[in-house]
Structure formats: structure tokens, C-alpha cells
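Practice record 12: protein with iron/sulfur cluster.
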Amino acid sequence: MKSPFSLDRQNQKVESKIVVALERIAEAFRVLLWLESKENALSPIQIQILIFLLFHSDEKCKVSYLSQEFNMTKATISDSVKLLLQKGLIQKFNNPIDTRSYIIGLTPAGKQTAEKSANFAFAIEKPLFTLSNEQKEIILSSLLNLIHELHKANIITIQRMCFTCVNYQHDEGQHYCKLLQSQLQNTELRIDCAEHELIPA
Ligand code: SF4
């Protein structure tokens, strides 16, 4: 059996164990997000939209961008946006660059909910504080490489990480950001950078 979920394969292949471990962590995210959404009488995607709006700039706060970010159809995102508007948690603004679309922003009530809900993954972050710097660096590098490979395989769509940015340079094992004009240590590589500019296809 080639499935990483096969127990025999897991006993033979560390790669399969890692896949199953990542699946367990994904499940923990799903459970924590579900608990947070239940507490706020919202759906998980509605909570995710509120948190995204809290931390990202206006040009990304549009239905089309959100649909790519969360791998959902525009219709599904539009439905969630409508409900969040009805609940008074978000508001619409005209898009000065494109009159056919609009920008979504948080209302004061939405900001309050987003700020509280943004802590939903703290239970996953907490045990990471107990690891050594070396362990954290290895985990981060491994995850960045894995995400980059999944992006190249079109499994993860939107990426705002250094490896996919026009400003990123890699030379003789050194990472460099042309925009910041600075070398980046392994732990300084960004996973969600506000200044990220995607390398054209
Ligand atoms: S602009 Fe941001 S994502 Fe791009 S290389 Fe610099 S730090 Fe990384």
C-alpha cells in the first residue's frame, strides 16, 4: 500500500509519518476554528475572513482575492460576505482602481470579533515556545520548503512567502531581500509578507 495512512508504510517511511502528523495538526486547526466560530455564531470561513481582513491591506480585501486565498468559489465567499454585512461585522467601500469590484473592511464590532478570534490557534503556537531555537529553525525551513513545493504543484494557490517573491535572492546558501536590502536569516524568511510581489509566471 502506497498510502501514507497505511500503518505498515508509516513503520517503514518517515515521510509517511510526517504526512500523518501534518494531517493531525490540520485537524487540530479545524477543531479550534470550529470552536471559535461556534462561540461567535459564525461559520469557520466567516471567522477566517474576519481575521484575514484584520491583518491584510485593502488591495487584498476583495471577494476575488479571498476566493483564491481560501480556495473557494467567488459565490461561496460572496454568500459569507453578505452574512457578515447583515451582522454588521464588515462594510463595503468603493474600489478606486476598479469600479466593478469593492473593498471589504471591518466595522468596529467586526474588528473586536476578529481581534479576539485571531487567537484561536494559540494552543498550537504555545508548545512551540518550548522548543530550542535550532528545532524551530529546522521546522520553519522544512515547512517553507514543503509549502513552496505544494505551491509549485498548484495545490496551494496564493503565496506571500519569500521563495515566490521577485525581491528574493538566494546565493550560496544565503537569503537576501532586495526590497529590504538586507540578508535574511532562516528564521527571518517570511511566510506572509505585506510587501510580497509574486514572481510572474
Ligand atoms: S519583500 Fe517580503 S516576501 Fe519579498 S523577499 Fe522581501 S521579505 Fe521576502
